[in-house]
Each structure stands twice: as structure tokens, then as C-alpha cells.
Amino acid sequence: MAMSLQEREHSSFVIQPATAEEAAKLLQSLEGEAAIVAGGTLLRTHWEAGTAAIPRYMIDLGGLPGITGITNSDSGLMIGAMTPLSVCRASSLIQNAFPLLTEACRSIAAPSIRNLATLGGNIVSAIGDAIPALLVYEAVLCWHDGMQEQRELLADWLRQPRKGRILLRVELPFSYTEEMNSNMKRFTAFHKIGRREAFTPSVVTAAVDGWLDTSTGCWGKFALRLAGAKRQRPGWKRSNSCCRGTRLEQHCFPKCTPKFCMNLSR
Ligand SMILES: Cc1cc2nc3c(=O)[nH]c(=O)nc-3n(C[C@H](O)[C@H](O)[C@H](O)COP(=O)(O)OP(=O)(O)OC[C@H]3O[C@@H](n4cnc5c(N)ncnc54)[C@H](O)[C@@H]3O)c2cc1C
């Protein structure tokens, strides 16, 4: 008689490394037989659908120091890869400086899933709805490859993902909002297109952040990032350069909207 999913999961071995170095080396040496299991919410959908095999070894990162939680530094906010989406959603540190990420976490699945699902798992899946929000904020990913820590822009990783590494944390630089002053009025928008009653990746998810100088009526910053299951769009690079300094009513939307729509429909 065929084994149930639970029986097959129970026949796997769970390994709990104590350091990121150990975790990355295990992942590399057990290639093809081991997987990092964070919240397991996305992996489980693959196992249930039969689109991925249950690995013989499940690597649990929960014991790694500093991999869970949100901390403030002088330069930015650091979010551990194992931080649950529910914690990100409730964080006032994130809400105050990076509101699109709060909105993205709010939009993902139901509360019971968000209690398990991690920000790291959402990113490494490469189809997660947190990605466009993080791209807007020029997020930096911090990895361990078994030898050393490595930092790279999320946008660069999406262009060229590398396997066999452990995502330790995401860094959101405060420099992103440095140009804002009391004359600036901030606008943010987050929108998903896709059916999610049962999980299927969104067709497209859009995140927009910008601020308008109320004394001149010109955009100080305007960033739009799109992502979707069919194709990653790690940036609509010209969104900021074509809007910055243009007046809202005169030039901005005639220039921006057709490009935005073209990107969506392509
Ligand atoms: C009912 C339901 C609804 C959902 N709705 C949404 C939705 O609306 N939007 C959305 O984006 N997602 C959705 N999901 C998918 C999933 O819940 C999220 O993407 C979640 O954030 C994945 O995180 P996780 O911790 O569960 O990842 P896991 O399933 O544990 O892992 C996902 C992948 O990331 C890898 N990984 C995880 N952490 C690390 C790390 N630190 N270093 C290296 N690799 C790592 C794993 O090996 C695996 O390949 C839904 C899932 C379900 C079941």
C-alpha cells in the first residue's frame, strides 16, 4: 500500500545544524537528498501536488543564531530569514519605514499559514509576493555559502540565483528614504492580480512607492516594481528616472502609465 504524505514526511531525517557554515556545508554535501525546510508551507504544496519529492534530509535552520527577528541598525533594518510573515506584518519598525512590506505580508495567505511561513522562504521561492515590495526598497540579501557571508542585491540574485547557500537575513537600507523631507507627501500602493483561494502564484504583483514635493508639485522619488509567477521582473528601471523631477499633472502619468501597462500585458 502506498505511504501517505505524513508517513513519507516521517520517514525523512531532520537535521538541526548549530551554525550557518554547518548548514550550508550539509546542503552542499547532501545535494539532491536534502532541502532547507523553513515554514514548509510552500514545500508542502509541492509535495502534496507531487511536483517535488519529499527530501530524505530536512535541514531545520531554527537553531542558527540571529536568523529570527527584526533589528534596527544605524544603516537599516535587518530581518532574519526565519522570521514568520505574521511577525513582519505586526512589526511597527517595518510599518513605519517600509510600509509596502507590511502590506505585502498582509496579502499573503491566511493567518494560520503566515504564522509558519517565513520571509526567507518567500524570497527563496522567487515567486513570493514580498519580492516586489523588497525590490522597491533596494533590499540586500545576506547569504552563507559554507565559507563566508556574502551580500548581494535582491535584484541581482533574481537575475542569477545560486543554489547551495543559506539565506541569513534581508537588509533594508534607511538610505532609501534619506531624500524625504517635511515638504514631501508619500504615496504607496501594493496590488496583486491572481486567484488565491487555493494557492497559485500571482499573475502579477505590483508595488509602488514615491513621494511628491508639495512645494513644487514634482516627484522626489517614484519606484515601481513588478513580479509574477511567469516571469520575474526585477525592476522597471526607468520608473524612477523618468518621473523624478517631473510635475505630477503635466508629464508624469502620460509618460509612465503606458509603459506600466505595456509591462503588465507583455
Ligand atoms: C494556502 C496557501 C496560500 C498561500 N498564499 C500565498 C500568497 O498569497 N503569496 C505568496 O507569496 N505565497 C503564498 N503561499 C506560499 C508560501 O506560504 C509563502 O511563499 C511562504 O512565505 C514560504 O515560506 P516558508 O517558510 O513556508 O518556505 P518553505 O516552504 O519552507 O521553503 C520555500 C523554499 O525556500 C527555501 N528556503 C527557505 N528558507 C531558506 C533559507 N533561509 N535559505 C535558503 N533556502 C531557504 C526552501 O528550501 C524552499 O525551496 C501560500 C501557501 C499556501 C499553502
Automatic annotation (TrEMBL):
InterPro entries: Diverse_Substr_Oxidored, FAD-bd_PCMH, FAD-bd_PCMH-like_sf, FAD-bd_PCMH_sub1, FAD-bd_PCMH_sub2, Mopterin_DH_FAD-bd. Keywords: FAD, Flavoprotein, Oxidoreductase. The keyword Iron does not apply. One of its GO terms (molecular function) is FAD binding. It holds the Pfam family FAD_binding_5. The keyword NADP does not apply. Residues 7-177 form the FAD-binding PCMH-type domain. This is FAD-binding PCMH-type domain-containing protein.
